[in-house]
Write a structure and sequence with these properties.
Blueprint: H1 2-12, H2 37-84, H3 91-102, H4 105-115, H5 126-143, H6 146-163, E1 172-174, H7 178-185, H8 188-196, E2 199-201, H9 203-216, H10 223-236, H11 240-248, E3 256-259, H12 263-277
Antiparallel strand pairs: 1-3, 2-3
Length: 279
C-alpha cells in the first residue's frame, strides 16, 4: 500500500493532462510511466480535481475584482453627480442680489447711458472696468460657497474668451441653456459683469426684466405699468413658441445676452477677461 501511494503521489507531480483509452499519458513528453491503469486513472482524477479547484478560485477572484471595481465606479459617479449638481438659487436670494447690484452707482450710470442710446462702455476706462469687475466678483464670493464661485468664474472666462472669436454664435448667451443659467445667468453679479464686458439684453429682454421686477417687488405692482409692459412685450414677440415659453418658465429664463462685437465692446470684453483672470 505504501508503494502504491508513493507511485500515485509521483504521478500526481508529473504533467498529466489526460490519458488515452490505452492508458498512455497525454502531455509530459519524455515521461515513461510504469504504473498500472488503475493507479494512472486515480492520478489523473486528482490532477483534474486540482485544476477545477484552481479554476473555480480564479473565477471567484475575478468576480470579486469586477464587483469591487463596479462599486468604486458607482461611488465615484455619485460623488461627481453631487459636485456637478447645478446650484439653484432661491428666487428671494436672487432678487436680493439683484437689488444690491442695481443700487451700485456704476449700475445706475450704465443703465442711464443705455437708456439714452449710448454704448455702455463709452467714457469708461480700462481701469474702471477692472475695478467694477472685481467689485462684482467680490460680491458674488460673499454670497456663494468657494467651489460654486470657482466653477462660475471658470465658465465666465470661457464665455469671455469665446466671445472674442469671429463666430457670432459665441456672442449670444441664452438663459434657457441650463449650464449657462446655473453657473452664470441666474446670478445678478455675473450678469452685471457681462454687461460691463459689452453684453446687452434685447429690448424684449429688458422689458421682461422690468416686468419681473414689478411682479416680484415687495410693494403691490403698478397694474397700468404691468399692462403696458405686457402689451409692449406681446408686440415684440417674434414667434408663438416664445409666448408659450413665457407661460412655462420664469421670465428671466427667456433672456438672451448679446455682444455686438464692436471695437468698443471688444475692448471692454478684453478688459473684463483680464480682470477676471487675475481675480
Amino acid at each position: 500500500l505504501d508503494q502504491k501511494a508513493a507511485r500515485v503521489a509521483a504521478a500526481g507531480r508529473r504533467p498529466v493532462n489526460g490519458t488515452a483509452p490505452t492508458g498512455e499519458v497525454l502531455g509530459g513528453e519524455g515521461v515513461e510511466v510504469t504504473m498500472d491503469p488503475e493507479d494512472l486513472r486515480e492520478a489523473r482524477l486528482q490532477h483534474l480535481e486540482r485544476q477545477q479547484a484552481e479554476r473555480r478560485a480564479a473565477e471567484r477572484s475575478a468576480k470579486d475584482a469586477v464587483a469591487a471595481v463596479q462599486q468604486e465606479a458607482s461611488a465615484v459617479a455619485r460623488r461627481e453627480d453631487e459636485v456637478k449638481a447645478p446650484l439653484v438659487v432661491p428666487p428671494e436670494e436672487r432678487q436680493a442680489a439683484a437689488r444690491a447690484v442695481a443700487e451700485l452707482p456704476m449700475t445706475r450710470r450704465r443703465h442711464e447711458t443705455s437708456a439714452s442710446g449710448g454704448a455702455s462702455s463709452d467714457s469708461v476706462s480700462t481701469e474702471e472696468i477692472a475695478e467694477q469687475t472685481v467689485m462684482l466678483l467680490d460680491m458674488l464670493a460673499e454670497r456663494l460657497e468657494k467651489e460654486q464661485v470657482e466653477g462660475s468664474v471658470k465658465l465666465l472666462r470661457t464665455v469671455l474668451r469665446n466671445a472674442m472669436k469671429d463666430d457670432p454664435k459665441y456672442r449670444q448667451l441664452k438663459a434657457l441653456n441650463d449650464k449657462l443659467w446655473a453657473a452664470l445667468l441666474q446670478h445678478p453679479e455675473l450678469c452685471a459683469v457681462l454687461e460691463v464686458a459689452g453684453f446687452q439684453l434685447s429690448e424684449a429682454d429688458r422689458i421682461r426684466a422690468d416686468l419681473q421686477e414689478h411682479l416680484d417687488g415687495g410693494t403691490p405692482p403698478n397694474h397700468s405699468k404691468v399692462k403696458w409692459l405686457m402689451s409692449r412685450l406681446e408686440a415684440l414677440q417674434t414667434s408663438p413658441s416664445t409666448t408659450l415659453a413665457l407661460r412655462k418658465v420664469d421670465l428671466e429664463r427667456i433672456a438672451t445676452f448679446v455682444h455686438d462685437g464692436s471695437s468698443e465692446g471688444s475692448e471692454a470684453l478684453a478688459a473684463v477677461l483680464e480682470a477676471t483672470s487675475g481675480w
